[in-house]
Amino acid sequence: MSSREKTSAARPSAPDLFHAFLLYQRLRDRYGPSGWWPGETRLEIAVGAVLTQNTAWSNVEKAIALLKEHSMLDVRRIHSAPADTLAALIRPSGYYNLKSVRLKNLMQVIMELCAGDVEAFFNRDLQDLRSVLLAVNGIGKETADSICCYAADKAIFVVDAYTRRILSRHGMVEEQADYEAIRHLFESGLPRDPAVYKDLHAYLVSVGKDFCLKSRPRCESCPLKGWP
Length: 228
Known about the structure:
The protein has helices at 3-10, 14-17, 20-31, 42-51, 57-69, 75-80, 83-89, 96-114, 118-122, 126-134, 141-151, 161-169, 179-187, 194-210. The chain is mainly α. Helix content is 61%, strand content 0%. The protein has 2 domains: 14-35 and 157-221, Endonuclease Iii, domain 2 (Orthogonal Bundle), CATH 1.10.1670; 42-151, Hypothetical protein, domain 2 (Endonuclease III, domain 1), CATH 1.10.340. The protein is globular and about 50 Å long. Helix 4 (42-51) packs antiparallel against helix 11 (141-151), helix 7 (83-89) packs across helix 8 and helix 10 packs antiparallel against helix 11 (141-151).
């Protein structure tokens, strides 16, 4: 074996260098308890997870406020409302016609499986709930896992664009790494505790929004400077 081959063989791969719990501790020391995801009920959190697709959270807050103002934050009312009526209320979230259909698709499943009983729906086994959500037209892995983790309080880690960007810039994963591979990378190194998963995902969103920007990242002031 050549000296170059020996060096290569001795050098750990990026996943070997990735310690999810150390990352969590570092960001927890910086941010403290996240308090994320905001929402008064499980249904509100699930609705927010659908509405936040491709928009800022401030826009979602406006849409949810309108739903509450019109007493529409209810499974049966969203399910029975005309799509254009619902779309008008969630207009601030953007892509409102598409999102109104997606919300109604989700409510349809809750009605069919649990007669509109939100608690019964979210109390399903994690894998069962995730499978049901992924079968809903318009709900992908990130949205499904957000609902599972934050609304249903299940131990599943949410991977988003911020997480992928941060890890790839620090050489932990390839830029086009598979969603499931990244999720398992986190879950294999963290306690099976939804509270930990929720906080770490929230921390990474904060880092992504404030420091690890898509263009002109603020690396010098980033709390992950020098990590790992």
